[in-house]
Amino acid sequence: MAHEISCQICQDLLPLVQDGIASQDSQAAVEAHLGCCPACRALAEGGPPPPPDGQKLLRHTRQKLRGFLLIVLLAGILFGLELTSSIDLFYNSVLMPTLGAVGYLVYRWKALYRMPLLMLALCAASAALKLLRGVEPVDVAALPVWAMIYCLFALVGVLIAGLLHFALKKEG
Ligand SMILES: [Zn+2]
Questions:
Q1: pLDDT at 53 exceeding the cut of 70
Q2: Distance, CA 151 to ligand 1 centroid (Å)?
Q3: 1 is a domain residue
Q4: With 67 labelled, which of 18, 29, 52, 60 sits at a CA distance of 20 to 30 A?
């Protein structure tokens, strides 16, 4: 009859058995081992690696997503600020509320004060960069006004996203 095998040998042979290419002896040995070893049986039933901490994985994915959204947010605000001195200015009436919604995804309700802070900081930074480059005559005085207007647009986006989230959560 089949000799007893160690967990290590069992796990080495397992893929071959599962693919149906193991010898009959190996198969019998693995099956015998699985019959009396819960650890290897879990491994055989659960697929390749033993499932890692699901919560941890989810948190990791969320953090990654959050980082990505934050980059989208920063890039979007800078892009919007760049539009200020162009004819495409009015796109910001759509862009800024959208960014506000993204801000809600990243910060939740904290976006209500973080979005304006972010907006003003980026506005100041972009104005400073333009002055340094000296490329175009920037209407520096008008920039804070635009930043305030964009803040309002963004806050509308935060509110809409937040209320939608709240409503969906209630329904769920
Ligand atoms: Zn085992």
A1: no
A2: 61
A3: no
A4: 52
Whether residues 67 and 28 fall in one domain: no
CA of 135 to the centre of ligand 1 (A): 70
List of residues 6+ apart from 72 with CB closer than 8 A: 102
pTM of the model: 0.62
* 18 in a structural domain: yes
Give distance in angstroms: CA of 22 to centre of ligand 1: 17
Interval 64-89 mean pLDDT: 87
CA of 4 to the centre of ligand 1 (A): 10
Q: Domain of 15?
A: 7-45
- Rounded to the nearest whole angstrom, what is the distance from the C-alpha of residue 54 to the centroid of ligand 1? 24
- The backbone region for 52, taken as left when phi is positive above 0, alpha when psi lies in -120 to 50, beta otherwise, is beta
40-44, 51-55, 74-78, 131-135: least confidently modelled range: 51-55
Measured in Å, residue 58 CA sits from the centre of ligand 1 at: 29
Q: Are residues 87 and 133 in the same domain?
A: yes
Give distance in angstroms: CA of 72 to centre of ligand 1. 48
- Residues 6+ positions from 4 with CB-CB distance below 8 Å: 29, 32, 33
CA of 52 to the centre of ligand 1 (A): 19
Predicted pLDDT of residue 138: 61
